[in-house]
Amino acid sequence: AEALIEIKGRPLTAAEILPDLDLPAEVAEEIRLFSLNQALDQDRRFDNVGDRGRDIWYLRRLIPEPVVRPPARLEIEHVPYSRSRIAEELLLIEREIDDEGSGEEVMGPSRPLYKTAVALIYAHWRAGTLPLTVRSRGLFPESANHHSPVVLVDGQSGDRMQGWVVHEHGFVYGLADWYKRYELPVGTYVKLERTRDPRVIHVDFEPRRLKRLWTRVAVVEGERLTFQVRKLPVACEYDDLLAIGEDDPAAIDRLWGASHARRESLLQVMLRIVPELLKLSPQATAHAKAIYSAVNVLRRTSPGPIFALLSAEPCFVPMGGGYWTFDETLVGS
Predict the structure, then answer these.
(1) Helix (H) or strand (E) run with residue 94 in it
(2) Which residues, in sequence order, are CB contacts of 263 under 8 Å at separation 6+?
(3) pLDDT of residue 43
(4) Rounded to whole angstroms, how far apart are CA atoms 77 and 136?
(5) Is the pLDDT at 53 greater than 80, yes or no?
(6) Which of 259, 263, 275, 317 has the most other CB atoms within 10 Å of its CB?
(7) DSSP 184
């Protein structure tokens, strides 16, 4: 069974493994399948990655590490906050952001669907994953297991990619190479469509003529996260308010680690990031989506806690249309 799974290079059911095993033919097939499933379940080399009550077996050593141990950048910090404090216009903007941390109290009830589109957010762009949001999770198979396999079909080329739905942590793994191949930026509208096989999902984007567009880029200067505006290649439809690039991923990771080591609060992070963002605008303003995206470079946080602080702290001043400015004299007032 181990050799067969390795040769096939994909998860297999007991029925697919059984013909290659030398088991007594006089034993009924149902009993042989039951016995094989029991044996595989008790062998630590194999992992049951099935869904909806179906046993599907794969080799633990072949499962990608981020599937078994999700990247730290995807672990949402659950910051206590009151939704009643969020300004009404921010409640509307919150619904536009496809963050798996925004539950049904934000997005409304989840429902079965066959296609949708989600805007790619920074944490998942960085990890090569896609969030399982209220909007998108109905497209993917459900499972009581920690993770289960899916096939992701590239809508541009038709290539098939091995993907993994990590149910407990709310993401789909297996898109890093796809993002790089098409140079998809943060904010890309990723189109998802279910096929007749619930374990096969089409992933696509809306291409457009390649242009070099002005985009926010996170840059580390000493122990500070700053931002610059640079021209980056974009060849797809995307949400430019969410878009953010990075100058040096290793430097950003070091700053991420230092910020967590200091146990900085979300407010402390925002008090440093928002003024830096305002330097990019002649009007000294930043959109709430851009603030959310920039904060997530250092803190994996859903929009709710960020928007609650924007609404409640006097130093963050609303300018209308989703834009905010900053008054340093009101910090702590």
Answers:
(1) helix 88-96
(2) none
(3) 87
(4) 21
(5) no
(6) 259
(7) P
